[in-house]
Specification:
Length: 364
Amino acid sequence: MKKQLVLEDGTVFIGEGFGSDTQKFGEIVFNTGMTGYQEILSDPSYCGQIVTLTYPLIGNYGINPDDFESISPAVSALVVREAAEFPSNWRSGQTIDSYLKMKGIPGISGIDTRKLTKIIRTHGTLKAAICGVDVNPAEIVEKLAATKLRNDQVKQVSTKSPYPSPGRGRRVVIVDFGMKHGILRELNDRNCDCIVMPYNATAEEILRLDPDGIMLSNGPGDPKDVPEAIEMIRGVLGKVPLFGICLGHQLFALACGADTTKMKFGHRGSNHPVKDLKTGKVAITSQNHGYTVDSTSISGTDLEITHIALNDGSIEGLAHQKAAAFTVQYHPEASPGPEDAGGLFDQFLEMVELQREEAEYAKA
């Protein structure tokens, strides 16, 4: 079954279809990871996007029930060089083709993904569509020009109601902007008593739960499309220790008076070097974001830059100079990716313990 990938600049790629036979539109991006296609497909941060995987062979170890980062994938479509029809792994339960069919996600294979990636790197992220070869590409280009990408991605992927993930340790409220399950797993592994709240939870609702710490999760889209979250962060800042990841990092920056901008083609992959400015150490990190905190906007705020990306110098970490709060742009839960930055969860809990000890000492 032939399909075509049409870009808004008029470029057309013809390939073999797999997965669902539906027509899908979205912003096309690329991920450079060599493994982890299952986690990428189920990462809510890809909501509404057509994902190109630059590694040439995808699906070779199949799909299993243990490696999902969400229950319902939000990715719009998948573009690969080759989709393996016969996976080989003892955990494999189905092929990538059958999984995409089951989830209603179209895929296209057999195209030059290196050429496509170069186009995106040159022109920046573009709108695109996957459709049948019987559709006139000129009509698709017209539709793409008239298509306005949705700005409610966080609303689409966030939990609709609060839910607990019990533990016997400190209580951590996770604000779900499109949370990867890896974040919850890391906190549960540290015995945290977690409560997951919707993206539009107010500061009052969160503080009413008497949390020891607050986690701002990752998520899709433009942070400026979530003004209610910015207001919530302002309401809890300084009252409870706070740790933000990816979109949570960007929202924290906006709440503190900094600004964010859209990147040309973003950071998406599992091998991005990040330097800790305090220690000088470099960590290899997993990343997935299309927006960044504007470094020129930090002056005049109470924020301090703690980490930078070595590839382009963009901000990868922030700390508040007066409140117990820090954030990172990358993914310390790293699914997929290296585990260099997993200690940030321990750093957060150390901050939580210190705040609790100070509060108990003040009472005494």
